[in-house]
Amino acid sequence: VNDGSPTPATATLSGCTVSSQPPPPSSTPALSKVTVNPTDVVGGTSSTGTVTLTSAAPAGGFQVALTSDNPVAATVPPSVTVAAGSTSASFTITTNPIGNPQSSLIIGTAGGITTYGIITVWTPFLFANGFVSVIPGGGGSGQVTSQPAGIDCTIANGSGSGACTSAFPVGTVVRLDARAAANSSFVGFRQSPGCFDASKITVARGVTITCQAGFVLR
After folding, report:
1. DSSP 8-state code for residue 47
2. Can you tell me the distance from the alpha carbon of 204 to that of 200, in angstroms, rounded to the nearest whole number?
3. In the chain, what's the furthest Cα-to-Cα distance?
4. Average pLDDT, the chain
5. Distance between CA atoms of 3 and 7, rounded to whole angstroms?
6. pLDDT in tens, 29-54
7. What is the 3-state secondary structure (H, E, C) of 50-82?
8. Minimal CA–CA distance to 189: which of 200, 197, 179?
9. CA 42 to CA 122: how far, in whole Å?
């Protein structure tokens, strides 16, 4: 043992035994994620949320605090407990009838970690339907119709009238057909999100897909 003195002293210890190192402390689980299934529901329909931990919950369980950032659309219980030995637990998300689609963050907090899942609450009509809309491009004239029926849009000198927007069930594949007037030529549909191919437009929930039809004067 050197105590820093000018003349170090040497000593021999006796009666000591060597023991193994103490075991490392058991790992404490942390909140990993919050998921929602299904993520899209009609208002008034429940959904299921699930919290997942990084490791199994200890004896006595592991509690995760829950909140919704938009209780008008969706509410949750104040907390959920992951049972000892489990890594996840589920809880019910209650949604409310609403007048327009709204999303809510379902937030979980535990051990200094906060994360969330998202649920979107829809009106019955917008849950089941999406829209296709035709707008004019160019200064010509013509007619745009759809299969299945719904779009019947008259374009005259760059202005549209008639049924230029129509609702279709989600997942419907819509084909648009364009016919130029006698004084015009059809130059094609302008590519845009959802309308890269106007012969097969897939209708999406609550979304309006806009297709621009190009008619030019001869």
Report:
1. E
2. 13
3. 114
4. 92
5. 9
6. 999 999 999 999 999 999 999 999 99
7. EEEECCCCCCCCEEEEEEECCCCCEECCCEEEE
8. 197
9. 5
Q: What is the Cα–Cα distance from 150 to 65, expressed in whole angstroms?
A: 48
For 48, which DSSP code?
A: E
d(CA 7, CA 26): 46
CB contact set of 180 (below 8 Å; sequence gap of 6+) = 140, 141, 142, 186, 215
- Cα–Cα distance measured from residue 66 to residue 59, given in angstroms and rounded to the nearest whole number: 21
DSSP 87: S
How far apart CA 146 and CA 165 sit, in angstroms, is 10
Collapse the DSSP code of 13 into the 3-class scheme (helix H, G, I; strand E, B; otherwise coil) and give the result: coil
The predicted-structure confidence for 87-132, as pLDDT tens digits, reads as follows 999 999 999 999 999 999 999 999 899 999 999 999 999 999 999 9
Task: Give the pLDDT band of residue 206 (cuts 50, 70, 90).
Answer: very high
Question: Reduced to 3 states, what is the DSSP secondary structure of residue 128?
Answer: helix
Alpha carbon of residue 157 to chain centroid = 41
